[in-house]
Amino acid sequence: MAFTLYTDAKMTTEASSPYQLDFNGVGVSDFKLFFGSPYVYETLKPKTDQQIMLIPASRLKKWQAGGAYSFGNIVEPTVANGCMYQCLGNGQAGSNEPAWSTDYGSECTSGGLVFVNLGAKFQPTDIRMALKQSDLGSAVSGEALAIGTELKGGTAIPVYIRVTNSNNAVRTDRTDPCISIRLNATTTETVVQTG
Looking at the DSSP assignment, which residues form a beta bridge with residue 87? Predict the structure, then answer.
């Protein structure tokens, strides 16, 4: 599907999907992406909703007994405690869940794997989106952004995004992105080119 987020208005470079978050303490990061399709013969329509929506969503996975993990995978406990943990090796988790500490930087083990506390987990409510930069301040945290009832290919829609870090800890999900911006259920119609 060509309808996605791009880094440029000409829609030549897709944005990293999902977008990765880096923070060096409390702060705000604003950036602009472009939603659309470079193909003029495509039209995007919602399947059941009134509008096409971009929706902030969590991708953070729960830890699994016996699960296979690679260096950098990020998980949260089966009973969430507000923190995220990064795997520091490759292998299989044990059958017993680690004794998760909520102390930033603390380590715990399961089987032969070590997990380190990366701090407070990223939440969809860390994200605000708007169609104008001036509207970011009044946008509701974690709320979906309606971008139209029908979108024609060939035109990029600017999407302004603000990510807010409310935690003092240095945090990153660069190795295993925990937040994504997904699209609601849509359908793409393609006009067949002849001649």
Answer: 115
